[in-house]
From TrEMBL:
Signal sequence, start to end: none
Pfam families (UniProt xref): Mg_trans_NIPA
UniProt function note: Acts as a Mg(2+) transporter. Can also transport other divalent cations such as Fe(2+), Sr(2+), Ba(2+), Mn(2+) and Co(2+) but to a much less extent than Mg(2+).
Keyword Lyase: no
GO molecular function: magnesium ion transmembrane transporter activity
Statement: the UniProt record of this protein carries the keyword Transferase: no
Subcellular location: Cell membrane; Early endosome; Membrane
Organism the protein comes from: Deinandra increscens subsp. villosa
Coiled coil feature spans: none
GO cellular component, one term: early endosome
Topology of the protein relative to the lipid bilayer: Multi-pass membrane protein
Protein name: Probable magnesium transporter
InterPro entries (UniProt xref): EmrE-like (IPR037185), Mg_trans_NIPA (IPR008521)
PANTHER family hit by this protein: MAGNESIUM TRANSPORTER-RELATED (PTHR12570:SF25), PTHR12570
């Protein structure tokens, strides 16, 4: 394994542990906030006053920072799929802390995630050498990536303006779709920022380059959007469902975006590319198995529902 890839691997694993834990901590915070106010899925922001939610946010920030550094040293095709390990962490913690049962097939799903991640790590390509932000800007403004970016923005707008008001409360793909598509653009911007910081620390300052600040603005915008819709997804649907679906979609879009922008597969043999894709499919299979064996969230009983139950009990007595 390349030295940069090894460092990126270690950081990505640490990141997954923190991020997986943050899902559970934030979920607990959202539950506490929802018990005494408007829930996030209904447009409430009471969770901002809940200390436990902020602890979860801090945990996620630590994980994302480690992930940020990992992207500097290793290609996205290596770092992003290792996010599957966060699913294992969240599934195990959800089993003990949220009473979301992890069944035997779920354990098999965890094993598949680990096996697939190992295959990806062993066959991931080396990071391309980049000497300036201007070079990254040239990659970001090539016609193929501009087409991807325009398509991503168009789909997000449709999901937010048309699909969310109609299907947001019943179809998790609306919220997760916004998070995942935005996430792919976030990763590309964050990787550019990370490289700029690395080059600056090495003596080649990139602070004066306007391209650096454009990447910063894009990253901040996408991150804020991601957090908002991730909160809605977590507060509306089961954590064990949100985590694997979010991982699968986010990783797929990120690998696609990275392949288009950074040309990760350039110069790689067919066997290496196939091995990495097989590893990703193994991880994806594991997340789907993990998802299919988990219990759905119990929906709260409405006032009318409680009245019907009460009436039925009275009739029986």
């Amino acid at each position: 394994m390349y030295t940069g890839n090894l460092l990126g691997f270690g950081l990505a694993v640490s990141s997954s542990a923190f991020i997986g834990s943050s899902f559970i901590i934030k979920k607990k915070g959202l539950q506490r906030a929802g018990a005494c106010g408007t829930r996030a899925r209904s447009g409430g922001y009471g969770y901002l006053l809940e200390p436990l939610w902020w602890i979860g946010m801090l945990t996620m920030v630590v994980g994302e920072f480690a992930n940020f550094i990992a992207y500097i040293y290793a290609p996205a095709v290596l770092v992003t799929p290792l996010g599957a390990l966060s699913i294992i962490v969240s599934a195990v913690l959800a089993h003990f802390l949220l009473n979301e049962k992890l069944r035997r097939m779920g354990i098999l799903g965890c094993v598949l995630c680990i096996v697939g991640s190992t295959v990806i790590v062993l066959h991931a390509p080396a990071e391309h050498s980049i000497s300036s932000v201007e070079e990254i800007w040239d990659l970001a403004t090539q016609p193929t990536f501009l087409l991807y970016t325009a398509s991503a923005i168009a789909v997000v707008m449709v999901l937010v303006l048309y699909c969310e008001p109609r299907y947001g409360q019943t179809n998790m793909l609306v919220y997760i779709g916004v998070c995942s598509i935005n996430g792919s653009l976030t990763v590309m911007s964050v990787k550019a920022i990370g490289i700029a910081i690395k080059l600056t620390l090495e003596g080649s300052s990139q602070v004066a380059s306007y391209q650096t600040w454009i990447f910063v603005m894009v990253a901040v915008t996408c991150i804020i959007t991601q957090l908002n819709y991730l909160n809605k997804a977590l507060d509306t649907f089961n954590t064990a469902v949100v985590s694997p679906i979010y991982y699968a979609m986010f990783t797929s879009f990120t690998i696609l975006a990275s392949a288009i922008m950074f040309k990760d597969w350039s110069g790689q043999s067919a066997s290496t590319i196939i091995s990495v894709l097989c590893g990703f499919m193994t991880v994806l299979s594991g997340t789907m198995i993990l998802h299919s064996t988990r219990e759905p969230d119990q929906q709260p009983v409405s006032g009318l529902g409680r009245e019907k139950v009460y009436t039925r009990v009275k009739a029986d007595t």
